[in-house]
Amino acid sequence: MANEYEIKKQICEIGKRIYDRNMVAANDGNISVKISDNEFLCTPTGVSKGFMTPEFICKVDAKGNVLQANGNFRPSSEIKMHMRVYEKRPDVGAVVHAHPTFATSFAIAGIPLTQPIMPEAVIALGCVPIAEYGTPSTVEIPDNVEKYLPYYDAVLLESHGALTWSTDLLAAYHKMESVEFYAELLYKSKMLGGPKEFDKEQIAKLYEIRRQMGLPGKHPANICAELGGKCGGGCHSAEGCNCGSAKADEPSVEAIVAEVTKKILAQMK
Ligand SMILES: [Zn+2]
Predict the structure, then answer these.
(1) 166 pairs with which residues across the strands?
(2) Ligand 1 center to residue 43 CA distance, Å?
(3) Does 246 fall in a domain?
(4) What is the Å distance from ligand 1's center to 220 Cα?
(5) If you measure from the C-alpha of residue 41 to the centroid of ligand 1, how many angstroms do you get, rounded to a whole number?
(6) How far is the CA of 231 from the centre of ligand 1 (A)?
(7) Is residue 183 part of a domain?
């Protein structure tokens, strides 16, 4: 692993990218990187992530307590959300939170990114559900994000923004880029009359590519195989993966409609 100073420089570089790409406004957004089981580097609160230098970066322990903070810098107010990801996902090395415009618009509209519309998004992300709204800086957000952590590597935060995580910082940042790009395509294709979705067979082939690539992280391609078709919900419906419902362990709208229709038809006979 790169030394601590190099990682601090990388955090500044990624901060500049999320700022330059309009993924955050003013002082919004936050980034963290795991450097050991009990040491994490994170961006400070109240500063623009586009103009940071390594001295800005704070260090916290696994509970979010400050280990190091220069001058008046204090760790991000959203550090609890980051720490919950590390706690529940030992495979994760970095977490990025931003407010990219298209993804955040979906989060505000309450529409999850679950439509299978282009190969890269299906392979890289699978689906991006919406974690229920929580008040920023409280434990509400980590509590609401938690149930999605075993199944996904990205979530929208309802009426707020997006959260991504991966093995290292560049990968977590790329995930944020992919979420935003996917959201933009989905938005624009909706403007053009609605996207044409992949069918089950096409999705199954893309899942197979994902499995062949051996990519790290959680994805319906792997989860569905592991859980025999019960992958926590919110992902594409594909062969061997019967999980088109929006919530875990709840029947899908389609299933309810089919059941009700059957009952009504039975009564009419
Ligand atoms: Zn935010």
Answers:
(1) 94
(2) 13
(3) no
(4) 26
(5) 18
(6) 28
(7) yes
> Could you list the residue range(s) of the whole structural domain that residue 133 is in?
4-192
SS3 at position 213? helix
40 within a domain of the structure (yes/no): yes
Measure 183 CA to ligand 1 centroid, in angstroms.
Answer: 17
Query: What total number of domains does the chain contain?
Result: 1
Can you point out the beta strands (E) in 29-183?
30-36, 39-42, 58-60, 66-68, 94-98, 130-131, 154-157, 161-166
Helix (H), strand (E) at residue 253: helix 253-268
Alpha helices in 89-166 (DSSP H): 101-109, 119-124, 140-146
> Is 225 inside a domain boundary?
no
Q: How far does the centroid of ligand 1 lie from the alpha carbon of residue 59, in Å?
A: 20
Rounded to the nearest 10 degrees, the angle between the axes of helix 169-191 and helix 101-109 is 70
- Mean pLDDT, consecutive 10-residue stretches, the chain (269 aa), reads 91 98 97 98 98 98 96 96 98 98 98 94 92 95 95 96 98 98 97 94 91 90 66 49 41 62 71
pTM of the full predicted structure? 0.86
**Cα separation, 151 vs 230, whole angstroms:** 11
CATH number of the domain to which 172 belongs: 3.40.225.10
Taking the C-alpha atoms of residue 69 and residue 116, their distance in angstroms, rounded to an integer, is 43
